[in-house]
């Protein structure tokens, strides 16, 4: 058996040390990513809780709002402003979700589910939700708009109608 020289032993130990350090850094990065994902989810949940709390301050009921928006109960005048505000907030949150997904902070499965909801929302013709989408459309990230409208011809503004976005009107 050959005797291993000191130089080879030191290089071998150094190589194992570097490999161990790289594994440690990789695990730390994974943990940081998981923490960032959890933090983003907490922030998104906070948006919705703040919206519900703001209704309580006005003496309005979120459950009643949902019943009216979904057509279970007839819409009342006192909830009309809420519907508009919630629709605008919805598109702010949607665009933020798009950015978070682009940055890798939203799981692909969660993003696909959210994208399906956003595509459904832009096609909705009930109440003013479609008009609000068209109003907000020029203010949204163009890549997000393209993604929403991909395969959804009813989402794009109709050039022959009065339902045009601000940019197209101006």
Distance between the termini: 86 Å
Query: Can you count the beta strands?
Result: 0
Number of helices: 7
Average of the residue pLDDT scores: 81
Which residues form runs of ≥5 with pLDDT under 50?
A: 163-170
**Which band does the percent of strand residues land in?**
under 5%
Mind telling me the C-alpha Rg? 25 Å
**SSE-based structural type:** mainly alpha
Shape: elongated
Query: What share of the residues lie within helices?
Result: over 70%
Q: What does it look like?
A:
The protein is an all-alpha fold and 170 residues long. It is 72% helix and 0% strand. It contains 7 helices and no strands. α1 runs antiparallel to α3 and α3 crosses α5 (129-136). It is elongated and about 90 Å long.
TL;DR?
With 170 residues, this protein is mainly α. It is built from 7 helices and no strands.
Give the SSE layout.
Blueprint: H1 6-57, H2 62-69, H3 77-102, H4 108-123, H5 129-136, H6 142-149, H7 166-169
Question: What features would you highlight for this structure?
Answer:
170 residues; mainly alpha; disordered C terminus
